[in-house]
Amino acid sequence: MHTPQSTPLTIDRDVVVVGAGPAGLSTARRLSQAGVTVAVLEARDRVGGRTWSDTVDGAWLEIGGQWVSPDQTELLALLDELGLETYARHRDGDSVYVAPDGTRTRYTGDRFPVGEKTAAEMDRLIELLDALTAEIGAREPWAHPKARELDTISFHHWLRAQSDDEEACQNIGLFIAGGMLTKPAHSFSALQAILMAASAGSFSHLVDENFILDRRVVGGMQSVSETMAAALGDDVHLSTPVRTVRWDEAGVTVVSDRVTVRARKVVMAVPPNLYTRVSYEPPLPRRQHQLHQHLSLGLVIKVHAVYETPFWRADGLSGTGFGAGELVQEVYDNTNHGDTRGTLVGFVSDEKADEVFALPAAERRRRILESVAAYLGELALEPVVYYESDWGSEEWTRGAYGATFDLGGLTRYGADQRTPVGPIHWASSDLAAEGYLHVEGALRIGRLTAEELLDELTDTPPGETS
């Protein structure tokens, strides 16, 4: 990788990629393998985007995205190709469910230990969502005859139109709102929820944590990006935020603080909320300006608590807990491969995150750990390392896990998310179908974008770049 220099570089390439996350690097990697010259410009001082594996206070943590599920075939194939190994998430023992009234129940299996009526309602809602997911799919949900109807009602209100069991609605909502989109269920549409489920194969997959959170990467998920970047060598430029994209039909000039790249094509491989951090000359068309304003990232605190031992296992617990009414709505054993210490990871999403971010850090920590202890007991109150992944404060991300549309936005703008503007292409997990908002989706978009560019570069004879 190219380290920053005091003298700005000016280079010529076939394609310049903005962003060195999984989407950008997989695009650049495939192009480079096909003999296309590339440059990757990354604003951060590291590669990996929303994947980040680092040591904090002596504890190795997965600060960003980390899990691999069996249906993520693109990621699994790349891990094999790169020689990276995976290991199973610990799941032996009982899980814990905390009911709305605070009742704590140990259970096994993938269904919450709720009352008979609530259980029946949850099963019915899951079947209904599975049927809609299969009918509408992940590729073009905006094109379905039911799309507008489902896109103009919030997921919160849609659920309650299907069922009068509030506990069932809250539990089903948990898997999409807090667990995936990290926004309140009243702020995104039922169609957006169906897209999320369809991208994972079914809604049933989302409610089965043993499927969706199946495995982890030995060495961390960031190692996927690091390995791809290493092969690209000095074509990856770090600490290089892009300021301006000058474009016309002949090509682009991409200007950053340290490197200026003249190229035939540019790939904006960053989250959609960052598109407007760049000045475009001439400005983007009206459609793109409007589209980008209707996409926004969610908010979640990923909480890491490290203990001398995984104490919950001695009590016969898996470390898995759920509670839609809890501050920490889900918690898992996140102990690292070969580590004797125990690590828990929990998630505080959307409005709950708003609430605790308003508190002093010590008070926020106390409340979060008390919520974890509601699942796993008082020993959870005293970790040896405690860390909060706050992606909302990251300058080059500004939220988590990814971007979703507001009510009505998916049907209004979805078809144009990836439409190129002259030589400008768009690529990120936020724009994916299968693997949406995951590394899987980023890799799929990277492959698709590279294939499209190779077709265009082959069809168009080389000319002068702007």
Automatic annotation (TrEMBL):
GO terms for molecular function: oxidoreductase activity. Residues 23-454 form the Amine oxidase domain. Its EC number is 1.-.-.-. The keyword 4Fe-4S does not apply. Its cofactor is FAD. It is an enzyme of class 1 (oxidoreductase). It holds the Pfam family Amino_oxidase. Keywords: Oxidoreductase. InterPro entries: Amino_oxidase, FAD/NAD-bd_sf, Flavin_amine_oxidase, Flavin_MAO. Signal peptide: none annotated. SUPFAM superfamilies: FAD-linked reductases, C-terminal domain (SSF54373), FAD/NAD(P)-binding domain (SSF51905). It comes from the Bacteria. Belongs to the flavin monoamine oxidase family. This is NAD(P)/FAD-dependent oxidoreductase.
